[in-house]
Amino acid sequence: MIVVSPFTPLHLFPLRFLVKIALGVNRIGILNSINCGLFLLEKPAWAVAVAAVGVILGWPFSILAFLPLTFYSLAKQFKQAFLSGAVTSIALLALSILVDHCYYQRWTSSVFNLLVYNVLGGGESHLYGTEGPLFYIRNGFNNFNFCFILALLFLGILPNCKEKVCP
Q1: pLDDT tens digits, one per residue of 10-39
Q2: Is 27:54 a contact under the CB 8 Å cutoff?
Q3: Which residue in 82, 78, 88, 87 sits closest to 31, CA to CA?
Q4: Using CB atoms within 10 A of its CB, is residue 54 exposed (0-12), middle (13-18) or buried (19+)?
Q5: Can you give the pLDDT at residue 94?
Q6: Where does the sequence pass through the membrane (predicted)?
């Protein structure tokens, strides 16, 4: 029996293939699939909201997987996509801070602390060390092979795309 759903074409997306390899079957992979499905259904505001859920409640570094469709959604329908992302982000960050306050007995944001520690090198970095931006670029090549190069090339080509070429 063949099941046809709005998300069936997702298996044809190279990004979906890479997310499956990099993240496996987990909530970020599922949210990325939903994000791609909403993109295909031409619902950019919902796609940005799903990306915000994945980044804030899931794994903050998954923003790299959500960025291409988020940028496209913002370019296509800026006002709706921006408002959807902003409202979702503010609500989820407030919820996250409240939950963190209940657990840690002080006002803090675990999402912000994770980003500060890993990206900016704040906190006690002598425990695990920190890496510069070149480390992440090298890991992008290592983990995503030629697709990372194609994604970087696409960022350079995107401003020159005509409406007939780009969806």
Answers
A1: 444 555 556 555 555 577 777 887 888 888
A2: yes
A3: 88
A4: buried
A5: 94
A6: 46-69, 81-99, 143-161
Q: In whole angstroms, how large is the CA radius of gyration of the chain?
A: 18
Using CA atoms, how far apart are residues 124 and 74, in angstroms rounded to an integer? Answer: 36
Domain ranges for the chain? 10-110
Residue type, 135: F
Q: Give the pLDDT confidence score for residue 124 in this predicted structure.
A: 60
Q: How many CA atoms lie within 13 A of 54 on its CB side?
A: 26
Distance CA 4, CA 137 (A): 38
DSSP 77-136: SHHHHHHHHHHHHHHHHHHHHHHHHHHHSS---HHHHHHIIIII--S-TTTT----HHHH
List the one residue out of 10, 71, 78 whose CA is nearest residue 41: 10
13-16 long-range CB contacts below 8 Å, 24 or more apart?
Answer: 14/147, 15/65, 15/68
Reported as a single tens digit per residue, the pLDDT across 33-89 is 788 888 888 888 898 998 888 888 888 888 888 888 888 888 888 999 899 999 999
Block residue for tokens 């099941």: 3
Has this prediction a pTM greater than 0.90?
no
Whether the Cβ atoms of residue 43 and residue 17 lie closer than 8 Å to each other:
no
